[in-house]
């Protein structure tokens, strides 16, 4: 259950309009080597350039495993509130608060850091998949006993991480990275990679709002900071992506229980020197049905130096971003609200402009 005070409910109310369906491209990860795989790699790159978002079929994650993990999570969310809160230390349970800076949503969640030993809870107080220094050093193993839900989520995470790696390998082929092609996938497969699993539960809109009442923000508009995020849901609508172009109109993602969806994250936008688009997205609660989503966030190791890949700079093309580490990005993002643009402070152009304004004594 998500409990919000009256003022809080107003804060997350949205107009009832429903955006048009997004035209989401599909990428078949199982395409055989040769022309079919080359076409899949091209489709993937085009989708990352245009929307920063695509659907993955032929992904190799057993559907039974995904459904079993989802059903176990749904069973957990159906338990009494007190019992769920007791599981904060073992499962990273939290509700309504997203990040540590006052963002609210009609959502409850589990948040687990991925370590070589399996998934471990991320402390609720600072829990966020957004950059935050509190988790920049990695996750300590929990001594709390694991249970069937944790075991299923562990198994699921291993399978989805493998798929994320396959996606990044296909991406590297599509980008023509050549000899350095393994570098992208390695970012999320190292033992110290900063990966996370987040299971979100959006209960149906509360009855007391009545008919004709506004929609609610489940998860406010944001970009994901990591390299890629890999998401599946129980087939309930609600996820929306911002379309390219001025204004960034919203489009709703048609639900699909068997496919996965991939978001380009901020880090991948930097690695591709802005060629790929870190997609803005949000979840709107407008349904009679609960939405359960499971999102794997593929993040780099803390000390990883992030800058555009040299192969993607091209002749004489300049880097749009200054180099920074993942730890630095997390520390700087820690103070931001959910919807803020966390990359702008790493853009070379804007920092150059700030420097010249400072030289002229015009900056504050
Ligand atoms: O729950 C969803 O469908 C998306 C959630 C999301 O964007 C996130 O956890 O970063
Ligand atoms: Fe997200």
Automatic annotation (TrEMBL):
UniProt-recorded Gene Ontology molecular function terms: metal ion binding; oxidoreductase activity
Alphabetical keyword list: Iron, Metal-binding, Oxidoreductase
Domain (Fe2OG dioxygenase) ranges: 192-300
Protein name: Fe2OG dioxygenase domain-containing protein
This protein's record includes keyword Ribonucleoprotein: no
Domain of life: Eukaryota
Assigned protein family: Belongs to the iron/ascorbate-dependent oxidoreductase family.
Keyword field contains Oxidoreductase: yes
């Amino acid at each position: 259950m998500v409990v919000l005070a009256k003022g809080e409910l107003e804060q997350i109310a949205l107009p009832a309009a429903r955006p048009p369906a997004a035209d989401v491209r599909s990428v078949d990860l199982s395409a055989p080597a040769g022309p079919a795989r080359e076409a899949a790699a091209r489709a993937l790159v085009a989708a990352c350039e245009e929307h920063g978002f695509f659907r993955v079929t032929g992904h190799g994650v057993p559907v039974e495993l995904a459904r079993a993990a989802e059903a176990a999570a749904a069973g957990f969310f159906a338990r009494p509130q007190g019992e769920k809160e007791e599981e904060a230390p073992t499962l990273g349970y939290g509700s309504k608060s997203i990040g540590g800076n006052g963002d609210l949503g009609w959502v409850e969640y589990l948040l687990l850091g991925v370590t070589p030993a399996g998934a471990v809870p991320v402390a609720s107080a600072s829990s966020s998949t957004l950059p935050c220094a509190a988790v920049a050093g990695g996750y300590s193993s929990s001594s709390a006993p694991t249970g069937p839900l944790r075991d299923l989520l562990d198994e699921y995470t291993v399978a989805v991480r493998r798929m994320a790696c396959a996606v990044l390998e296909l991406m590297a082929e599509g980008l023509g990275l050549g000899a350095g092609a393994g570098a992208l996938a390695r970012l999320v497969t190292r033992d110290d990679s900063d990966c996370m699993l987040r299971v979100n539960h959006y209960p149906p809109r509360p009855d007391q709002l009545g008919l004709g009442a506004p929609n609610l923000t489940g998860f406010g508009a944001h970009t994901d900071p990591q390299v890629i995020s890999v998401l599946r849901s129980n087939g309930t609508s609600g996820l929306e992506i911002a379309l390219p172009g001025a204004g960034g109109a919203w489009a709703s993602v048609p639900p699909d229980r068997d496919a996965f969806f991939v978001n380009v994250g901020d880090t991948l936008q930097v690695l591709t020197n802005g060629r790929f688009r870190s997609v803005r997205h949000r979840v709107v609660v407008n349904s009679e049905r609960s939405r359960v989503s499971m999102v794997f966030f593929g993040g780099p190791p803390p000390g990883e130096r992030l800058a555009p890949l040299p192969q993607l700079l091209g002749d004489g093309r300049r880097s749009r971003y200054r180099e920074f580490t993942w730890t630095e990005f997390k520390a700087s993002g820690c103070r931001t609200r959910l919807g803020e643009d966390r990359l702008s402070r790493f853009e070379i152009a804007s920092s150059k402009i700030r420097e010249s304004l400072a030289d002229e004594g015009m900056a504050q």
